[in-house]
User: Fold Protein PhnA from Cocleimonas flava.
Amino acid sequence: MSIDPLLLKRAHSKCEFCGSDEELATYDIPPITLKSLDKSLLVCSTCLDQIEHPEKMQPNHWRCLNDTMWSEIPAIQAMSWRMLDRLRDEGWPNDLLEMLYIEDDVKKWAMAGLRAVDGPTLDSNGVAFALGDSAIMIKDVFITGANFTAKRGMVVKNIALTDTNRSIEGNLNGTRVVLGAKTLKKV
Assistant:
């Protein structure tokens, strides 16, 4: 399959994630309704293999997202968000996701590629959360949007499940917040 010359020019003939110039290919970001330059990326074989086969993920390879996520190109922003979301369990991607600002339509596009939740949302002890549950914080967590620190021992009430099984939404200090499920213990 040939690579669009405009894509090669945009990417300076390098992988738009890691900067490699070897074994480049076009990756069309799903969901694909109509192929276009705006919904395509130029990626190396290493990045492509890990995008298409999540079980082969090498988290340290994706530290390049620390720089890549700041691209002005919506396709790169959307795919950077997806890869950071896929790597959340590593810890460091959570910080990058909190810093990342992308337009609402780009974030919606990025989220459209997420798989449905695979299983129940579990607390730090492996107990499943249900709608309306309460939980206790097991460690201090700074709540960015609310600008306060949720201290260990605080109670999160009226839990709602989110579109990912790694987080919950709940009331804390009169504020509705989203928290990582592994920072909580169900009561």
About this structure: The beta strands are 24-28, 40-44, 135-137, 141-143, 148-150, 155-161, 167-172, 175-180, 184-186. Residues 167 and 180 are 4 Å apart (CA to CA). Residues 5-112 form one domain.
